[in-house]
Amino acid sequence: MEKLESVDGLVISQQKEWAEILTGFEARNRYTVMDTFGTTLYLAAEWEGSFLTRVILRSLRPFTIYVINPDGSRVLILRRTFRFYLHKLDIYDPEWKHLGTIQRQFSILRRIYSVLDNSGLEIFQLFGPILHPWTFMIRKSGEEIGNITKKWSGLFKEAFTSADNFGVTFPTELDVTMKSLLLGAVFLIDFVHFERRHNE
Questions:
Q1: Is residue 140 included in any domain, yes or no?
Q2: How far apart are alpha carbons 127 and 46 in whole angstroms?
Q3: Are 131 and 139 in contact (CB under 8 A)?
Q4: CA nearest 180: which of 70, 67, 28?
Q5: Per-residue tens of pLDDT for the chain, all 200 residues
Q6: Most buried one in 11, 72, 110, 173, CB count within 10 A?
Q7: Residue 79: domain span
Q8: Does residue 130 form part of some domain?
Q9: Cα–Cα nearest to 105, from 192, 197, 6, 22
Q10: % helix / strand / coil in the chain, to the nearest 5?
């Protein structure tokens, strides 16, 4: 993930095919990960999982997402098991070394996630305010250091597809592993909070 060393933000754009748009059948999610200048850094794709699982469980479905370089080599593996509410995403390097976890916390009115390192220690908290449903603040020791925001995708895209665009900002000097965990958080947030709305 050396491409993340010098960046202070990413744009993650979900890709949809015309067949999915016209039929409404949920296909495996695919994304392009870019820097803030629009340069493609990585591609990401949902792997495994049957069509039936996508139809029945929809946004609650378990998944494995591979984040790859444009040449096809893996850089991250994201794995989510089925959970009805306390959603969890584990993040691994290409050799399946565990890097950390994104874990939703119980809260009635708030959307709160913990970003945990590989020993289970909380590094960041992702906090979604009620009045800003498209934004999650990235907090470290109570201080906001960045955010994850769902971006407007354009009228046609918003109306007819579940494709989403996200921006994530963080300090440039942040460790690459920490940036990787925050990138992984974007995919879980997309599934839990935005894919469900479109499917309904």
A1: no
A2: 25
A3: no
A4: 67
A5: 789 999 999 999 988 654 444 444 456 789 999 999 999 999 999 886 555 455 555 556 788 999 999 999 999 999 998 777 789 999 999 999 999 999 999 887 788 999 999 999 999 999 998 888 789 999 999 999 999 999 865 544 444 444 578 999 999 999 999 999 999 999 999 888 877 544 44
A6: 11
A7: 2-101+149-199
A8: no
A9: 192
A10: 25, 40, 35
Q: Which residues contact 162 (CB under 8 A, 6 or more apart)?
A: 14, 16, 26, 194, 195, 198, 199
Is 108 inside any structural domain?
no
Q: Tell me the helices (H) and strands (E) count for the chain, helix number first.
A: 5, 12
CA pair distance 145, 124, nearest whole angstrom: 9
pTM: 0.83
Amino acid at 118: N
Domain count, the chain: 1
Query: Which residue do the tokens 């995919």 mark?
Result: 187
